[in-house]
User: Fold this.
Amino acid sequence: MGVIPFSCIGGESIMEQVKRIQTLQRLIAAQGLGGALIGYSRNILYFTGTAQPSHLVVLPDEYTLYVRSGLDFALNDIFIPKEKVKEERRLDKISEVFLKRMQPSGGKIGVELDILTAEQFLNIKKLFPGYDFVNISPLVLEQRKTKTPGEIEQIRKACQAIHAGHEAVLSSLKDGITELELAAAVENAHRLAGHEGIFFIRQPDFFMSRGPITSGPNLFKISGVVYTITGVGLSPAVPAGPSQRIINAGDIVIVDIPTLVNGYHADQTRTYCVGKAGKEIHSMYDDLQAIADHLIANIRPGTACHDIHRMAVDKAYELGRQDQFQHFGGGKRSRLIGHGIGLELNEPPIPSEYDHSPVEEDYVIALDMHMLDEGLGVVKLEDMILIKRTGNEILTTSPRKLFEV
Assistant:
């Protein structure tokens, strides 16, 4: 089977996909920008259908994709008209064309200030003398929050791939296996199910293994690399993910390895026990699931992210779990309970104390919550939720119970 072009997947018409750039053009005009220069691969993919190295120049009334390399691939991938694509490696040449179409006396240009390195920005600044630069990323990320039917279809496929990893845990987890061996079985199942073997997080110098996995006493060792139950990794070079620790009978094991299929992510966490879990662990897990179920039943389009966080904390207090909910040990606690997900593993909105923006219909969020009791253990549950006015849908398909294997 050959590679499926981005323009052919997802059940969307090419006209619907091209509307993405038209929407951005309206936003650019409304912000008083002369144009935008976009170079981040996930944004290029969203607006054009290709991830080949490119710059996308968007003006209020026209646009051009300048492909630095891989033109033949790009022309096969894109859903924008081919006449909108040119081959050009040099940014100075692109800037010359850009400037001819803009007011020569200066103005505002939108660039991805959160993605560019200082060196890249200084180069752009030199090529556009007299212009001011505005961060275009908030406009793009706001647009990307609402998922189209085609995007949701791809997310469902990523959820199918992540479920294959869950099934690999059920068939592989046993007394005597190492965390690394278990992770390898999960990752192999993901890959065979279509996972592209990478994930994207919008953070400079981000590093992690293919995803958090941890067991036994390692559950209580929280690295600073990601804001969740992390695992300790194989060395200080990458201190998160599976280690060489041997998993023993009675151990709790948490698996949180994401997938990426056709450019879209899935993120899911399940908790397992090698053998029988005690009543206290079952009770803690049941209360964690009750908090998640409460949110899924009560989040509505228009609910502010900080109110979603408050709902979760209030439910934890109601259940008497306030000391364990989102606890990291040593008095540390997570102030977020999830994240948006799509072309990036973590993207807005962020249900947390700090995000006051609302969730709206057709947003996809990952509710990512855990409980930690320093004398008892750790349990975690994460599911992806599609926000709908008619009732929210759980997109992740693996059963949501505590698994005893």
The mean pLDDT is 94. The radius of gyration is 23 Å. Residues 6-144 form a domain with the Creatine Amidinohydrolase; Chain A, domain 1 fold (CATH 3.40.350.10).
